[in-house]
């Protein structure tokens, strides 16, 4: 084992895990400390029982996240310095070779991780979500979803992983560039096919019915110069009472999707304002910017893996005596989150800036007060805490805190 890299890994690992746990505990204390009263800015809109429900829901989810962090940390150590990955290599290398060995190694890691995560997933869905009135999923539907995800993962994942491993072994010194080109093309393809081929495997998508809401939305799309392949309502209520709206796809496959739970709660003018916010992301080119950032980041990470793949200290420092492309890919994917965690606030800040810009766009093309009313209803219905710990939010929340977002929108309101 290489002491220097082992020490560096353990140092970053310890700091990352400790920070994540500290932030969650800090968040719990902060939310509980503000549970007794509704923030002044929301006192006329949110009832105290709803505010307290949000606080309790947040605390329960945070406690589950602490358990999840500990399980994740223990699993990472077990796979690396604990010898788990080395044991899997010893087992499969005696039976398989080449791409089949690599696929067996990667799917073994995925299966073991999935089985260990399963109890916490069941607890979160059928205890926490049910306790707070959000769960509408049956155990049968949970199992069906899991089977579909597994089969889909095998059908899509196996050939993609095999292609990546082949490129890593066959393309010489610059294999990482070929893998990046393949990976980027695959992601673009998924963006095209997901709305029409993958999403319908899990949910039913029905065209939005004619009426005031559809007329408003079509008028908004015309004002914004946005063309889509259709307006659809998704049966999100069969799994949860949480509401949402989004647009998905790319190019001619773009479609706008509303959860049925959202439409049942909001007025047509409020739905229009929510959609205007989503269109703001498109018009401000946030989707394109995020894609560019994702592709640039993946290129950088693959280049880094290219520098590590032939370095014996990388494998030995993480408790793996063998050295091959599959092990390099697995180790890299396992340990990189430990080293990239300090970048979380930067990504959060970028995402928040995009949210503010989308809100400003919505205020220009819809009514700011309608978006405020819609957001308050969504905070209430989804039991989103109005009092997150600021430091925890900086690391974990892609959206601005409720008070900041509402205040920003109030500044955008047009005078009567």
Overall pLDDT confidence: 92
Uncertain regions spanning at least 5 consecutive residues: none
Order of helices and strands: HHHHHHEHEEEHHHHHHHHH
Radius of gyration: 23 Å
Strand content: under 5%
CATH topology annotation of the domain at 203-264? Zincin-like
Give the biggest sheet: 4 strands, mixed
Give the strand line-up of the largest sheet. 1-2-4-3
Q: What structural class do the secondary elements suggest? A: mainly alpha
CATH domain class name of the domain at 203-264: Alpha Beta
Number of helices: 16
CATH architecture of the domain at 203-264: 2-Layer Sandwich
Give the % helix. over 70%
Q: In one word, what is the shape?
A: globular
Instruction: Supply the CATH superfamily name of the domain at 203-264.
Output: Metalloproteases ("zincins"), catalytic domain
User: What is the terminal-to-terminal distance?
Assistant: 71 Å
Total strands: the figure is: 4
Question: Can you summarize this structure?
Answer:
With 416 residues, this protein is mainly alpha-helical. 71% of the residues lie in helices and 4% in strands.
Record the SSE blueprint.
Elements: H1 3-33, H2 48-79, H3 84-93, H4 98-131, H5 139-170, H6 175-198, E1 205-207, H7 212-224, E2 231-234, E3 245-248, E4 255-259, H8 260-263, H9 268-283, H10 286-308, H11 312-316, H12 325-340, H13 344-365, H14 368-381, H15 390-396, H16 402-412
Parallel strand pairs: 2-4
Antiparallel strand pairs: 1-2, 3-4
What does this structure look like?
- Helices cover 71% and strands 4% of the residues.
- By secondary structure, the chain is mainly α.
- The protein has a domain at 203-264: Zincin-like (2-Layer Sandwich).
- The chain has a four-stranded mixed sheet with strand order 1-2-4-3.
- Helix 4 (98-131) packs parallel to helix 12 and helix 7 packs parallel to helix 9 (268-283).
- The protein is globular, with a radius of gyration of 23 Å.
């Amino acid at each position: 084992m290489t002491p220097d890299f082992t020490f560096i890994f353990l140092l970053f690992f310890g700091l990352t895990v400790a920070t994540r746990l500290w932030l969650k505990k800090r968040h719990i204390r902060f939310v509980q400390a503000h549970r007794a009263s509704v923030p002044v800015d929301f006192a006329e809109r949110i009832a105290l029982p709803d505010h307290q429900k949000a606080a309790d829901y947040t605390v329960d989810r945070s406690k589950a996240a602490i358990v999840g962090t500990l399980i994740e940390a223990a699993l990472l150590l077990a796979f690396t310095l604990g010898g788990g990955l080395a044991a899997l290599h010893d087992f499969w290398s005696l039976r398989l070779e080449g791409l089949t060995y690599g696929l067996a190694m990667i799917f073994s890691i995925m299966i073991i991780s999935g089985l260990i995560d399963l109890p916490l997933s069941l607890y979160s869905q059928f205890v926490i979500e049910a306790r707070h009135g959000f769960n509408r999923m049956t155990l049968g539907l949970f199992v069906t979803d899991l089977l579909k995800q597994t089969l889909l993962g095998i059908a899509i994942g196996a050939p993609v992983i095999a292609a990546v491993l082949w490129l890593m072994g066959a393309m010489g010194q610059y294999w990482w560039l070929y893998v990046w080109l393949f990976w980027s093309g695959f992601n673009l393809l998924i963006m095209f096919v997901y709305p029409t081929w993958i999403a319908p495997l899990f949910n039913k998508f029905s065209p939005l019915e004619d009426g005031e809401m559809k007329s408003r939305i079509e008028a908004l799309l015309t004002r914004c110069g946005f063309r889509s392949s259709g307006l659809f309502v998704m049966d999100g209520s069969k799994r949860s009472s949480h509401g949402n709206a989004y647009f998905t796809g790319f190019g001619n496959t773009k479609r706008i999707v509303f959860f049925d739970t959202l439409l049942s709660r909001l007025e047509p003018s409020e739905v229009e304002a929510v959609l205007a916010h989503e269109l703001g992301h498109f018009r401000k080119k946030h989707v394109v910017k995020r894609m560019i950032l994702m592709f640039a980041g993946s290129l950088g990470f693959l280049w880094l893996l290219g520098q590590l793949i032939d370095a014996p200290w990388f494998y030995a420092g993480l408790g793996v005596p063998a050295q091959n492309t599959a092990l390099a890919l697995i180790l890299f994917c396992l340990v990189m989150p430990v080293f990239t965690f300090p970048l979380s606030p930067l990504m959060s800040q970028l995402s928040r800036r995009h949210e503010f810009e989308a809100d400003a766009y919505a205020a220009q093309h819809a009514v700011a007060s309608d978006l405020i009313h819609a957001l308050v209803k969504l905070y209430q219905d989804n039991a989103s805490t109005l009092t997150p710990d600021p430091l925890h939010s900086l690391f974990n929340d892609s959206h601005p805190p409720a008070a900041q977002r509402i205040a920003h929108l109030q500044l955008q309101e047009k005078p009567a």
